[in-house]
UniProtKB/TrEMBL annotation, chains A, B:
GO terms for biological process: sulfate assimilation. Keywords: ATP-binding, Chloroplast, Nucleotide-binding, Nucleotidyltransferase, Plastid, Transferase, Transit peptide. It catalyses: sulfate + ATP + H(+) = adenosine 5'-phosphosulfate + diphosphate. It is found in: Plastid, Chloroplast. Gene3D superfamilies: HUPs, Sulfate adenylyltransferase. Residues 13-178 form the ATP-sulfurylase PUA-like domain. This is sulfate adenylyltransferase. Its EC number is 2.7.7.4. Its main location: plastid. One of its GO terms (cellular component) is chloroplast. SUPFAM superfamilies: Nucleotidylyl transferase (SSF52374), PUA domain-like (SSF88697). Belongs to the sulfate adenylyltransferase family.
Length: 419, 419
């Protein structure tokens, strides 16, 4: 049983809105709230809804206090930001993805005039209450068009979470009875923004640089992260800490699953490719939209709340191949450009990726040098997966060998299961 | 020949960015600039492009100084606003529509490495120069999805201006050699933002309330405008001036054409339905997107530059019927809601429409009274047009009789031409 962590006075970057939202009910009030919820109309959450409840309840989306009401939804959809107040003054915080809860006609009917609803997990356990609810139309086409900039078939989050969802959205103030857990052996990695901040304080970090990823770490990533640390030291920081922050929520079927990625990341640290003394590995509980330049803002904004003041951004962040055309869904430079201009992200230092590739001569991952372009090989995710599937090894120096074994084993198992 | 109007020190609302952009070349430099343009690669403008050049050159889009470069385009598309500076401080101005110039592959090829291009009007006359150009990809689907929130077939501006447009956008700083004119007998109504401001100063307006329209004025509109003036007087303003500001650029084929509307508006003022002493009728030169809640922000923002500090907003502003479904394309309340939350529009007072309808008992347009709902009739644009087409009169008191004659004659002529 967890209690909310105490708020530590911190020299770290301030959370959006000035205060980290924590919507977990204090233990002493839990029993009475559960009793209250039992008497309310119920809304059933999908796995993705539960991930969002997790995200909101821990303050990743601070100052958002629940699933969006219509005014928040419209601002997010049209402006990628929310107007709010801090100490009485008007401020703008970034909020690029609509964080909403869809319900169907039958559920809306059942809720009737109730002002609060109980929330049921996919396992039919009461996990919280949504208070002061507002129900408004879920115009799916408009939501999709404005979030993804396309309405093409085959967008993974749309297929999984929106098309199947109901015709109504329900917003309100969230409270959850307990910190949300998944019991998959990885909950200890799911540090809340407050727990991360406590850990950064404990380590006396004077700079925190976040690396969002949903892929295995190869030595090009490691080069980049180590080089960033070196730069920060040169800039005069004494103790920059890396937050290696794999996304842990919904991902598309051909992405490497979370438990494999976490095992791979662990090996990379064990092998010393990244230094455990200056690295924290934790899971970011958000589901993935694959909404490119719109989503990368969410990835960055949430890390402000998690205590990061530097954010590393690469080519085509949160992107994917176009579902029906032979090209990237997004212009690979737009994510980086938007991050540098997005409302509410001014206080985060954006660190653009330098391109790393496999240096054939020196047999290692190195920053690409255009003057000897022919001596470099770009190893894509697809190529990496094809090595693993075929039981081949990638070139020496591409990835820590024990990290590679994790991947290779996973893909070999997959193939066995396929037969 | 016009010279740019002198900037008058004004107590009116400040234009966006602090200064009204005026991109018309001073007369003394005109000859040399034309000579320069003759030697440059040329870009041909469509009618809609020319309307935008007009809009930009007069400062309706201040502080925008030309067709958007990619950074401006992306901010407009994703944030409906632009970051800029005023007196060294960072500010945000509203900018909800991408104001862009599309070129095709062949034109891009022809421009080559030139940094400036000459602009040719649809009549093949050199009208200006675009300087410091930047050419970037025109992802039409993304532009449409993010601007309209739908990619459905049948959006009038998309069909007219985007689908046919080239695969590239060209941004840069605009200058035009002379104020843009259309020689259609209506140019005198096309007052620039500076000319409007001068006129408001001359009349010693202490409040300016703008009414955007693209339809004939009926007595319900007039009631609303007169009631707004009464409210402003009650609020303590001494001389509120109404800017009756019909949109003059591209409209869809079944809208009433500009010259008919202008004639109708003139009759309404002649009949004293609106008071000429406290009303300025002028043409807003922008083309129409029919992009609902996204476009209404543009309509409001441009009127800030035109000197208005109050903006009247109705049901479903800048909306239209869904092209393929039996419903409005946009939620009719979203426009009003977004205006109240949009970045950069804080300084404009938004005045929501009260609903007017035909009061059958008192034979006049009146504010709808739900307690005697049955005594009201809603006369839609479609119904109004069907009266005019069938040679019938609308109910007494719906519209000034001489204003109605203008409409009736137009639709009768149309039918004759159809036969």
């Amino acid at each position: 049983m967890h209690s909310p962590s105490p708020i530590i006075k911190s020299s770290l970057i301030e959370p959006d809105g000035g205060e980290l939202v924590n919507l977990v009910v204090p233990e002493i009030e839990r029993a009475s709230r559960v009793l209250e919820a039992q008497a309310l109309p119920k809304v059933s959450l999908t796995n993705i809804d539960l991930e969002w409840a997790h995200v909101i309840s821990e303050g990743w989306a601070s100052p958002l206090k629940g699933f969006m009401r219509e005014n928040e939804y419209l601002q997010s959809l049209h402006f990628n930001s929310l107007k709010t107040t801090k100490n009485g003054s008007s401020i703008v915080v970034n909020m690029s993805l609509p964080i909403v809860l869809a319900i169907d006609d039958e559920t809306k009917e059942r809720i009737g005039c109730s002002t609060h609803v109980g929330l049921l997990s996919p396992n039919k356990v009461l996990i919280g209450i949504l208070r002061g609810i507002e129900i408004y139309k879920h115009n799916k086409e408009e939501r999709i068009a404005r979030t993804w900039g396309t309405t093409v078939d085959g967008l993974p989050y749309v297929d999984e979470a929106i098309s199947k969802g109901g015709n109504w959205l329900i917003g309100g103030d969230l409270e959850v009875f307990e910190p949300i857990k998944y019991n998959d052996g990885l909950d200890d990695y799911r540090l809340s923004p407050q727990e991360l901040r406590n850990e950064f304080e404990r380590r006396e970090a004077d700079a925190v640089f976040a690396f969002q990823l949903r892929n295995p770490v190869h030595n090009g990533h490691a080069l980049l992260m180590n080089d960033t640390r070196r730069s920060l030291l040169e800039m005069g920081y004494n103790n920059p800490i890396l937050l290696l922050h794999p996304l842990g929520g919904f991902t598309k079927v051909d992405d490497v699953p979370l438990h494999v990625r976490m095992e791979q990341h662990t090996k990379v640290l064990e092998d010393g490719i990244l230094d455990p003394k200056t690295t924290i590995v934790a899971i970011f509980p958000s589901p993935m939209h694959y909404a490119g330049p719109t989503e990368v803002q969410w990835h960055a904004k949430a890390r402000i709340n998690g205590g990061a003041n530097f954010y590393i951004v690469g080519r085509d962040p949160a992107g994917m191949p176009h579902p029906t055309q032979n090209r990237d869904l997004y212009d690979p430079d737009h994510g980086k450009k938007l991050l540098s201009m997005a409302p509410g992200l001014d206080k985060l230092h954006i660190l653009p990726f330098r391109v790393a590739a496999y240096d054939i001569v020196h047999k290692k991952m190195a920053f690409f040098d255009p003057s000897r372009a022919k001596e470099f090989e770009f190893i894509s995710g697809t190529k990496m997966r094809s090595y693993a599937k075929n039981g081949e090894n990638p070139p020496e120096g591409f990835m820590s060998p024990s990290g590679w074994s994790v991947l290779a084993n996973y893909y070999q198992t997959l193939q066995t299961e396929d037969c």
